[in-house]
Amino acid sequence: MRLRYAGTCRLCGTTVEARVEAIYERTTKTVRCLSCSPTAADPDEPSPAPEIEQARPQADGAPPADLGTAGASARREYERRHAKREERVRKKHPKLGGFLLAITNDPQSTTAWDTGALGEERLGQRLNELASESIRVLHDRRIPGTRANIDHLAVTPTGVYVIDAKRYVNKRPSLKVEGGLLRPRTEKLLVGGRDQTKLVDGVLKQVALVQSIVGDHVPVTGVLCFIEADWPLIGGAFASRGVEVLWPKKLYPRLSTEGPHTAQISGLHELLASALPEA
């Protein structure tokens, strides 16, 4: 059908403009773009992407799921960019290349990957230490059909946590709320005074994808976990549109909370590992 209003594909997160052909899923009131619908399915019957549709928990006795390596894809991208710059400089300046590389740094577009990888690695190491029969983790999972990834997944008795690690050294996350009475309420995530609401948007897309895999009966919570940020001595953690914004030590107790989904942890872990391969 042609959409009357613009929407966002629940699987890939792509914006679907108004009056564009797409699938509107009446039962869930969500939109699915045609590229995520390989067959002419009934618009009322949602169908997940092919990679997810075939995902099933592994049978008893099957090898354990590959947990992945925290920060691996970000680390590879940093090393690729670093090596490419070094090659370019040495080729352009055969005699002075080594000296120029020694006195200059990689551009911010390259060092950002190193910063991100370090944050994921540190959080991933701690999550691995917490892992047990009641806390199963996965790291650096590729989102099918995209170049994007999910930093960390934690399957716990209270549900699944989609964790996006962010390393903003000495910068304070805060929530700015506008409107609410005479105009619509809006929330902005500020980090060091700069608008970073896009980080919340990104986590919400990941949450929607994971929810489509595990089903509506399992709670899926999005988390922005800021590492080495400037948090106040009292308070500090908050939520924006359902996404928890906090720091590592605030996150760990939540993962350890008792809940009704203990018996499903192993199956959910295998299901997610199969549907979202290592990046």
Describe the structure.
With 279 residues, this protein is an alpha+beta fold. The chain has two domains: 1-47, no CATH class; 48-275, no CATH class. 33% of the residues lie in helices and 23% in strands. It has seven helices and 13 strands. The chain has helices spanning 50-53, 72-92, 97-103, 108-130, 197-214, 248-255, 265-275, and strands at 7-8, 15-16, 23-25, 30-32, 136-142, 149-156, 159-167, 173-178, 186-191, 194-195, 220-227, 238-240, 243-246. The chain has a six-stranded mixed beta sheet with strand order 5-6-7-11-13-12, with helices on both faces. Strands 8-9-10 form a three-stranded antiparallel beta sheet, with helices on one face. A two-stranded antiparallel sheet has the order 1-2. Helix 2 (72-92) runs antiparallel to helix 4 (108-130). The longest helix is centred in the middle third of the chain and has 23 residues, at 108-130. The radius of gyration is 21 Å and the shape is globular.
List the helices and strands and how they pair.
Layout: E1 7-8, E2 15-16, E3 23-25, E4 30-32, H1 50-53, H2 72-92, H3 97-103, H4 108-130, E5 136-142, E6 149-156, E7 159-167, E8 173-178, E9 186-191, E10 194-195, H5 197-214, E11 220-227, E12 238-240, E13 243-246, H6 248-255, H7 265-275
Parallel strand pairs: 7-11, 11-13
Antiparallel strand pairs: 1-2, 3-4, 5-6, 6-7, 8-9, 9-10, 12-13
Helix pairs in contact: 2-3, 2-4
